[in-house]
Write a structure and sequence with these properties.
The protein has 281 residues and is an alpha/beta fold. Helices cover 40% and strands 15% of the residues. This is 1-(5-phosphoribosyl)-5-amino-4-imidazole-carboxylate carboxylase.
Length: 281
């Protein structure tokens, strides 16, 4: 597929593709039109064609190269079920079409090793070793604190924290403060209330998000994990408990969905952070 070209100076100069731009670059194009440095009809044609040029067909996948333009955040690779070779090919394409990191979740050890081999010195992983990224994380705006009930929840909490950082939020973690020892939670109350968004991760009976939400004025995103014994039903008990939270201000992600929680929390924090500081978003 031939990408659509935009024939103006700057990032839209010869050889640039509309599929590789973000909102800031579109704004720059519009500024150039306003300044008389680019023709209106030419810019309009390129922008109208953009949706059809916004993906790359790799044969096994169609990479959404316009997601960052539409949403402010680039596509992320869900590596489960993908071969190491496919994931590396996706990373090469994502690195070519965005200044943000290429990022994969739920990666096997073989996939992580392949990415490190393809991008020596550039690739890095989260604590659990199931998330891998290449490229410098963006500047931060707003603070997300990821709170986990127990050490068995660390993998999901780590995915949430890694994701939130790559999506542009400052991230801090608070671990092992489950409801079996409430004094541990109360000891970090000030830190909880100082965040712009909280991701609260818990398995078993899933009570921690409700307790946290009853103590703070901060949005709480609850993430149930599949940690627990038989009647936890692989996280279903925690999910239902969180959905039935008595405390207001709790939103709930799917079971073990640290990635979705990290994206949501980062977007909340990016919007809330400047307002708390009095800066312009």
């Amino acid at each position: 597929m031939r990408p659509q070209r935009v024939g103006v100076a700057g990032p839209f100069g010869p050889g640039a593709t509309i599929g590789a731009v973000n909102r800031a670059e579109v704004r720059e194009l519009l500024d150039r039109v306003a300044a008389g440095e680019a023709g209106v009809d030419e810019a309009l044609d390129d922008l109208v064609r953009a949706p059809t040029a916004g993906f790359a067909d790799l044969g096994f996948a169609r990479v959404d190269t316009h997601r960052e333009l539409r949403t402010g955040d680039p596509e992320v690779v869900f590596a489960a079920g993908k071969t190491p070779e496919q994931t590396v090919a996706l990373f090469h394409r994502l690195r070519a079409t965005s200044r943000r990191p290429a990022f994969a979740t739920r990666a096997s050890a073989a996939v992580v090793d392949a990415v490190h081999a393809a991008f020596p010195g550039e690739a890095y992983t989260d604590d659990s070793g199931t998330c891998v990224a290449v490229g410098e994380p963006p500047a931060t705006r707003g603070l997300v604190r990821v709170v986990s009930a127990g050490t068995s929840d660390v993998a999901v909490a780590g995915e949430a924290a890694f994701t939130a950082r790559l999506f542009g939020a400052e991230v801090e973690r608070i671990e092992d403060v489950g409801v079996a020892g409430l004094h541990r939670l109360l000891a970090v109350h000030a830190e909880l209330d100082a965040a712009d968004c909280l991701v609260v991760v818990a398995g078993m009976e899933g009570a921690l998000p409700s307790v946290v939400a009853g103590l703070v004025s901060v949005p709480v995103l609850a993430v149930p994990t599949s940690v627990g014994y038989g009647a936890s039903f692989g996280g279903l008990a925690a999910l239902l408990a969180m959905l039935n939270s008595c405390a207001p201000g709790v939103a709930v992600c799917n079971i073990d969905n640290g990635f979705g929680a990290g994206v949501f929390a980062a977007r909340v924090a990016r919007a809330a952070g400047p307002k708390r500081s009095g800066a312009t978003p």
